[in-house]
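Example record

One chain of 189 residues, shown exactly as stored in the release files.
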Amino acid sequence: MTAIVTTPPAGEPVTLEEARAQLRLTGEAEDGLLGRLIAAARAQVERATRRALVTQGWRLYLDAWPPGRIVRLPVAPVASVEAVTVYDGDGVPVALDPQAYRLDGASEPPRLKVTAGAPAGISGFNGIEIDFIAGYGAGAADVPQPLRHAVLMLAAHWFEHREAVADPGVLGMPPGVAVLLSSYRMLRL
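Predicted structure tokens for this chain:
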């Protein structure tokens, strides 16, 4: 099972102004760096929690249907499943009818149930593709406040500790960020 982002988020869960306020910066001279740090912090928070913060497109590749044809999607929350495609023995894509699958976006991890009559991917490796939309919403206001604050804290931490190899005490996830993320972590099953 491999999952990739097909459409990155159009924006970030925090603004440059919020990051400047967090760092008590009065000027805009560091905005380029802050923008990169915010994007990196968002990506790290998403990896640590297995959650998409801002709306983004994903594709999951499978070799075969799992037992019971219940697919656990790798990130949450999932807003919709856009397409399910299987490849036949000749490598020809076959789009499944949306009636052949059902999304359970309320469970964690989110699940996709595929009907028994739906075709299986016959081509072997990555013979099944599931395209879905994940994220809390398109805007920063849609993202839960603790996750937004974790992005701010992590970006600020990296701003203050710019060295690639620093004091071992500052490596890894800062404790305050880890605490904020702890109740949002989605366990890998």
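Notes: Strands lie at 2-7, 56-62, 70-72, 78-87, 93-95, 101-104, 111-114, 128-134.
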